[in-house]
Amino acid sequence: MAIAFVILFMVPVPYYIVQPGSALEVRPMVQMEDTSNVEKGTFYMTTVSMREGNVIGYLLAHVDSWMDLVPKEDVLGQGEDPEHYQYMQEEVMRQSQQNAVLAAFRQAGRPAEERLLGVEVFRVLSGMPAAEALKEGDIIQQVDDHKIGQAEDLLTYLSEKKPGEQVQLLFNRNGDKEETTLTLASLAASGGEDRPGIGIEPVTLRKVETDPKVSIQADKIGGPSAGLMFSLEILNQLGDRDLTNGLQVAGTGTISPDGDVGQIGGIQHKILAAEREHADIFFVPADVEPQDSNEKKAKATAKELGSDMAIVPVHTLNEAVQYLDQQRGAQKTS
């Protein structure tokens, strides 16, 4: 019997198993020079657990409503391996951390400089034009006569072209400037959208400098969804008042450099993770577009759990700060 169980545990299935992760205290992850602000409560980021499936997990997912089965191709995409996926998620987390720093410092009116250095080639897609000339780590700085500072610049410029047109790239490889000419192809050929491209995964390369300096260490946690909570913790360390007000404050949401909060995945699992940590407040991205569902799912999940946790939808970092300030006022008058 034990041998059969081990075999079932080792046999893979073409699914990832997604379930509630953890609510992790943010303050130990954020290091800032010359901060003395005392935090009486706690800011928590929330995570989703995702692992490659096996037969045991596949069977359990059919009886456990908190375990979801997601086809591997929906997670990895075409031709991507799990190691690269994790690497990409860690890079996305790094970008999110930089956004969080910028958003917090701008909210506080403190100096923060963002220098865009170009577009790093994070991955070259096989069979696409870039495979002929580019390598991972190359930094694209110009296309034709257009300077390229960030990934959005590259995508916008190429979107105005057609497959079959040529573009000239100026890029940096190991400190040396190089040029190449590529013929655009439809990204549909590599499993992407039907639009012109060169066939790379682009990542904005930038440097963020602040005073005081900030660093964030999140180990192997990946993805962009901790942005809002990182910003709140940074802002708390920058300020002279404790935004937590002694409360347990959990949440999730992507963050832009200007403080806009965006939708994330797995919200129902993050609500349960926060409930297990007895959070008082949960910040969730507000539903804005017709396809958005974070706010609706968060409220429905909290109701299903019978949770007393306040589910607070926010559009921006500033809205989250205003809500926390209101809690301070309410405590003083109660």
Automatic annotation (TrEMBL):
<keyword id="KW-0645">Protease</keyword>
<dbReference type="InterPro" id="IPR001478">
    <property type="entry name" value="PDZ"/>
</dbReference>
<feature type="domain" description="Lon proteolytic">
    <location>
        <begin position="221"/>
        <end position="327"/>
    </location>
</feature>
<dbReference type="InterPro" id="IPR027065">
    <property type="entry name" value="Lon_Prtase"/>
</dbReference>
<dbReference type="GO" id="GO:0004252">
    <property type="term" value="F:serine-type endopeptidase activity"/>
</dbReference>
<dbReference type="Pfam" id="PF05362">
    <property type="entry name" value="Lon_C"/>
</dbReference>
<protein>
    <recommendedName>
        <fullName>endopeptidase La</fullName>
        <ecNumber>3.4.21.53</ecNumber>
    </recommendedName>
</protein>
<keyword id="KW-0720">Serine protease</keyword>
<dbReference type="GO" id="GO:0004176">
    <property type="term" value="F:ATP-dependent peptidase activity"/>
</dbReference>
<dbReference type="Pfam" id="PF13180">
    <property type="entry name" value="PDZ_2"/>
</dbReference>
<dbReference type="GO" id="GO:0005524">
    <property type="term" value="F:ATP binding"/>
</dbReference>
<comment type="similarity">
    <text>Belongs to the peptidase S16 family.</text>
</comment>
<dbReference type="InterPro" id="IPR020568">
    <property type="entry name" value="Ribosomal_Su5_D2-typ_SF"/>
</dbReference>
<dbReference type="InterPro" id="IPR014721">
    <property type="entry name" value="Ribsml_uS5_D2-typ_fold_subgr"/>
</dbReference>
<dbReference type="GO" id="GO:0006508">
    <property type="term" value="P:proteolysis"/>
</dbReference>
<dbReference type="GO" id="GO:0030163">
    <property type="term" value="P:protein catabolic process"/>
</dbReference>
<dbReference type="InterPro" id="IPR036034">
    <property type="entry name" value="PDZ_sf"/>
</dbReference>
<dbReference type="InterPro" id="IPR008269">
    <property type="entry name" value="Lon_proteolytic"/>
</dbReference>
<keyword id="KW-0378">Hydrolase</keyword>
<feature type="active site">
    <location>
        <position position="270"/>
    </location>
</feature>
<feature type="active site">
    <location>
        <position position="225"/>
    </location>
</feature>
